[in-house]
Amino acid sequence: MGGISLNYLARRLLVFALTVWVAATLIFIIPRLAPGDPISAMIARMSQFEGFVENADLIIESWRKRFGLDDPIHVQYLRYLGNTLRLDLGYSMGNFPSTVYELIARRLPWTIGLVGLSTVIFFTVGNLCGALLAWYRTPRWLKVMIPISMTFTSVPPALFSLLLVYIFGFLLPIFPQVGAYGRGMVPSLTPEFFGSVLHHGFLPAMSIVLVTFGFWALGMRGMMVTIEGEDYMILAQAKGLKPFYVLYRYMIRNAILPQMTALAVSIGTLINGSVLVEIMFVYNGMGSLIYEGINTQDFGLIQGTSFILIVTSALAVLIIDLVYPLIDPRISLEGR
Amino acid sequence: MAEKTKDPAVAGGVKKAGLLNRFDNPWLNWKFLTGAGIIGLIFFMIFLGNQFWDTELALAGSSPLNMPPVGFTNWRDQEGVPEHPLGTENSGRDMLALLIVGTPRTIGVGAIAASVGMGIGILLGFLAGFVGGFADDVIRLATDVTITIPSLLVLIVIQSVLPRIDLVTMALLISMFAWATPTRYIRAQVLSMRESGYVQMARLSGVPTRDIMYREIMPNLLPYLAASYIGNMTGAILSAVGLELLGFGPQRIPSLGVSIFWSIEAAALLRNMWWWWGIPTVILAVVFIALLLINLGLDEIANPRLRKAS
Fold it and tell me: Are A106 and A171 members of one domain?
């Protein structure tokens, strides 16, 4: 296997650090591009929305201090970067005494659970389907069934979730329409709670999986078709290796490599989709938190949640990139 | 396409497939034609829509409220009427007019954002792939960072501080993120092409770099560029619909995403007004599936091995 080359590692870490920095900087700049000073603009829009603002003085005070609006811009920027990197994301204006960090800490595990589990499912199922589509020994009925099951590929997950909720939550009420667990349940480690989480999570996860796995099947099929023409495939068959062994060791092992790279590229899109799916299902994760922020004009919450989700995305890409050399030893030699 | 058979990879693939038939024009691909047909039809609705149907009915208050489609009844036992064949929503917009006006707008946002993104992508992709060196390093880093950031989140942050925006501004905001994928893709293609014989030849003959890029390499990249453009458009529409589902976007004549947003806000699901959210959802799904078909078709046009497999 060999270790990961220093060059490769350094480049991945650089991309990660740059992504976090760009995200933080964008979130610093964007509110300042809006007309007026950011705090009074926010308070004005809040009071316009809610009629009055509870604890307005306290909020203005805390935000003035946080932004340090009287300091020169570069001092403001450096202080902001320092705060952000220590995950001090300020107070949520909609839930004033709580900090944005506290709210996010409660919600982030749900999003990671939903997106992580869906990713494992669609990546496995998609690649398996793609491999079977191209394999010469696949039964004919499977080669007909798989493309049919891929009909909804590329429909946005959020729109697909509307259809799923209507059919399986409304017309045939098999699955709950909203929420991450049963109403009135307290999160605990009991089997009932766990069952409820799975029951509630099924439709959101399916809205992501059913529209996504087809992409991976198509990509995998393309790779498999290329590999089938290689000389080592003929040799493997001539040696009399078992067909399943050839499929797994010779074809899938080689074809999966570009798929891993593609997975790293698609993480951002995946998080976009899951944010919307969570909103559709009022799921207890980061997406719903952003939506609450939008509805209550809680800018600190919107910005903090977006920042943490971008960092999560960058972290996921970093992990995939670091796992990649383990399954493709060539990378560690090349150093790229 | 006569010039395509000159490409050694393509010629080899066709030989392998063993069915070289002069009636086998790769562009007569049913996936490509179906997808392009659907998108083309929707696109022409921009000009022809008002010939079929009174598009003024897409404005609020132009029709009775909450009417069901023909052949159905709503919860107040009203029958659908032929004046509003697909029903109306709760501020009195006719659904059919809404679809005729809204669907091309959605595709338009995608087309604008994808065009801007592709333009930047072609420029940067060629620069990185052909010039290389420091420019390549910088462009690759910028691409990797941009692809990692979930664009919707930044767009939400922007929209939350900006006043209401129109569709063109929305498209331009989306294109801030739409350049990265084409750049990466084009760079990879250019890198593999610059080592090929005809480029080496052109270089030895002293053809200027710019001419090699745009006269020699670009024509060979066309099927890939087309596929990349369609993929980009899908991504841009996805972002636009995502923002609209959150309630951002033009309100007077809502696009499809905005009307789905309003239907959710008005609990259309619970009132069983399926036509309000369901019809725009299905139409958008058809748009996405059509774009996917175009892309699959283009893939098969560019890569004969796939044609054999399907």
Answer: yes
Determine how many CB atoms are found less than 10 A away from the CB of residue B220: 18
What's the CATH number where A218 sits? 1.10.3720.10
Q: What is the 3-state secondary structure (H, E, C) of A220-261?
A: HHHHHHHHHCCHHHHHHHHCCCCHHHHHHHHHHHHHHHHHHH
To probe the interface with B, which of A8, A138, A162, A290 has the most B CB atoms within 10 Å? Answer: A162
Q: How many CB atoms lie within 10 A of CB A117?
A: 16
Q: Count up the domains in chain A and report the number.
A: 2
Q: Which residue of A has its CA nearest to B162?
A: A34
- Interchain contact, A309 vs B245, CB within 8 Å: no
Q: What is the CA radius of gyration of chain A?
A: 24
The answer to whether A156 contacts B238, with C-beta atoms less than 8 Å apart, is yes
B73 forms beta bridges with B79
Reduced DSSP (H G I as helix, E B as strand, rest coil) percent helix, strand, coil of chain A, to 5: 75, 0, 25
Tell me, yes or no, whether A52 and A82 share the same domain.
Answer: yes
Separation CA B136–CA B138 (nearest Å)? 6
Encode pLDDT of B222-256 as tens digits.
Answer: 878 888 899 899 999 999 999 989 888 777 777 88
Same domain, A245 and A112: yes
Cβ separation B288–A156 shorter than 8 A: yes
A189 min Cα distance to partner chain B (Å): 32
The reply to whether A158 and A206 lie within a common domain is: yes
If we measure between CA atoms, which residue out of A297, A302, A277, A305 comes closest to residue A104?
A305
DSSP string, A193-221: HHHHHHHHHHHHHHHHHHHHHHHHHHHHH
Q: Enter the ipTM.
A: 0.85
Same domain, A179 and A191: yes
pLDDT value, residue A132: 92
Q: Which domain holds residue A149?
A: 100-295
